Amino acid sequence: GERTFVMVKPDGVQRGLIGEILSRFEERGLKVVGGKFLQIDEELASEHYAEHEDKPFYDDLVSFITSGPVFAFVLQGADATRQVRSMVGETDPLEADPGTIRGDYGLDLGRNVVHASDHEDEGANEREIALFFDEEDLVDYERIDETWLYEEDH
Ligand code: GTP
Ligand code: MG
């Protein structure tokens, strides 16, 4: 299955939502293959948000993401990136459907609780995984329910 990168942002950590957010993905059937609690420094923030370098909100983005610890993790499963994006919801919580993470926990565009790799940006998932994790930090294993989650081998 495909791997994808997800992160509980500083607001989500401070609000005690790590477990809740992780649970949603676990219960959906996505497999946790890596996880790391860290505080992002300026250098990592500028690499992670390189695509937004020229946006007017860039400085706010970097100061927010470095403002406190985050919980970064890697999920694996069929179409993991798209599955995760649909569970995360629209970027602006105002437009995110109830039932999505941002639609249930967020109110503000600049405090939208989670980051997830963009499925429309080819290779963003593996690029972001490599930015935060060494390959040896990720574990390849089978979850006991895998044969019940998928019709065919994937
Ligand atoms: P991420 O998963 O966090 O990357 O969100 P996204 O992919 O849904 O949105 P995008 O990559 O376009 O933007 C990255 C982050 O910048 C968003 O999660 C928002 O927190 C923030 N952001 C996006 N657009 C705006 C904006 O117009 N104004 C402000 N203040 N923040 C924005
Ligand atoms: Mg994005």
Automatic annotation (TrEMBL):
The active site is at 115 (pros-phosphohistidine intermediate). Major role in the synthesis of nucleoside triphosphates other than ATP. The ATP gamma phosphate is transferred to the NDP beta phosphate via a ping-pong mechanism, using a phosphorylated active-site intermediate. This is Nucleoside diphosphate kinase. It is found in: Cytoplasm. GO terms for molecular function: ATP binding; metal ion binding; nucleoside diphosphate kinase activity. Residues 1-140 form the Nucleoside diphosphate kinase-like domain. The lineage of its organism: Archaea, Methanobacteriati, Methanobacteriota, Stenosarchaea group, Halobacteria. GO terms for cellular component: cytoplasm. NCBIfam families: PRK00668.1 (NF001908).
